[in-house]
Amino acid sequence: MIIRSGNKYMKAMCVLLALLVTSSAMADIKAMIIKRSGQKVVGKVRWKGSSKVYIVTTSAGQFQIPLSDVSNVRAAKPSTLDSAIRKINTGAASAAIPALKQIAADYEMIEWDVVATRYLAEAYLKNNMYADATRVAEKILNASGNQRASSELMEIYCEALMKDKKFSKLKSMLTRMIETGSRSAAAVAQVKRGDIDRKNGNVQDALINGYLRTIVLYRDVKSIQPEAIYKAMLAFKEMGHHSRAQKMRKKLLAEYPQSKYSSQARSES
Questions:
Q1: Percent of the chain, pLDDT > 90?
Q2: Do 82 and 159 belong together in one domain?
Q3: CATH number, domain at 195?
Q4: Where residue 143 sits, what CATH number does that domain have?
Q5: Are residue 59 and residue 138 in the same domain, yes or no?
Q6: Separation between Cα atoms, residue 269 and residue 265, nearest integer Å
Q7: Strand order of the sheet with strand 29-35?
Q8: Measured between alpha carbons, how far is 10 from 23 in angstroms, rounded to an integer?
Q9: Alpha helix positions (H), the chain
Q10: What pLDDT does 10 receive?
Q11: What is the distance between the alpha carbons of residues 91 and 110, in angstroms, rounded to a whole number?
């Protein structure tokens, strides 16, 4: 009898612990919802993914706002985010994972989940946990038609798929991002598609349809330009067009002198 009651006690404790974990992952966040009509609603906000609605609690009561009615959701930066990012930047990526997972869960579809997931994916990537990196990135990519994906998250996601040798999945995803993603995400996808062509020996396709297309058609996406220009330079070199490669090098150094790709270009001269 003692053993049975002990087992019942342990089961009850496990259920209670599960409930506590679940409730902590569904925290209500003080936020401002900006509706497409321009109306601003401030209260405690939680995302309900199964119905694609925000649950909002204000002094007037609790109500729901469908995602289709929402233009933006803003909230104060999570207090633990900066320290987690510092851990990643100082070589302690593993230590940053718990805090970033919590932020991503608490702020689901509320502004900071994208930032937290971007660094969470990087932390997983640095620990060679490629499947985990792709899983958390895909949650953001799939949540609202790819529109919330940042270019940085896209780069990490692509790198994880490349290292995990998921080439077919990567190519399919890149095509989808180019067709339906934000401009910044589409620009990254364009360059990464060029990388796949170049890896497979199709240097001319990589140059024309990947790097040069990005340089010309996505010139407003400044974050991807240094990489596109640098890789165009390398492609021109591989094709034996050294004068054109030199033009790309000069463009890179003149327009993006502080970029890591400019540093690489200088070291290779």
A1: 65
A2: yes
A3: 1.25.40
A4: 1.25.40.10
A5: no
A6: 6
A7: 61-66, 53-58, 40-48, 29-35, 70-75
A8: 20
A9: 2-24, 81-89, 93-106, 112-126, 130-143, 151-163, 167-180, 183-199, 203-205, 213-217, 225-238, 242-255, 260-267
A10: 53
A11: 28
| pTM reported for the whole predicted model | 0.69
Q: What is the dihedral sign for C-alpha 198, 180, 33, 139?
A: negative
Each residue's pLDDT tens digit, 59-85: 999 999 999 999 999 999 999 999 999
Is the pLDDT score of 6 beyond 60? no
Q: Phi then psi for 72, rounded to 5 degrees? A: -160, 155
**Encoding tokens for residue 206?**
């990589």
Q: Is 97 in the same domain as 47?
A: no
Contacts of 102 (CB under 8 A, 6+ apart): 24, 25, 80
CA 113, CA 129: separation in Å to the nearest integer?
Answer: 20
For the chain, what is the domain count? Answer: 3
Looking at the structure, tell me whether residues 191 and 256 fall in a common domain. yes
Choose one of 126, 159, 181: the last residue of a domain: 181
To the nearest 10 degrees (0 to 180), the angle between helices 81-89 and 112-126 is 30
pLDDT, one tens digit per residue, over 81-124 is 999 999 999 999 999 999 999 999 999 999 899 999 999 999 99
Output the six-digit token pair for 153.
């998250």
Identify whether the C-beta of residue 229 lies closer than 8 Å to the C-beta of residue 207.
Answer: no
Q: How many CB atoms lie within 10 A of CB 261?
A: 18
Answer yes or no: do 14 and 62 share one domain: yes
CATH code, domain carrying 7: 2.30.30.100
Same domain, 223 and 195: yes
Contact 196, 170 (CB under 8 A): yes
Domain boundary (152, 181, 210) is at 181
Enclosing domain of residue 205:
182-269
Q: pLDDT at position 24, please?
A: 41
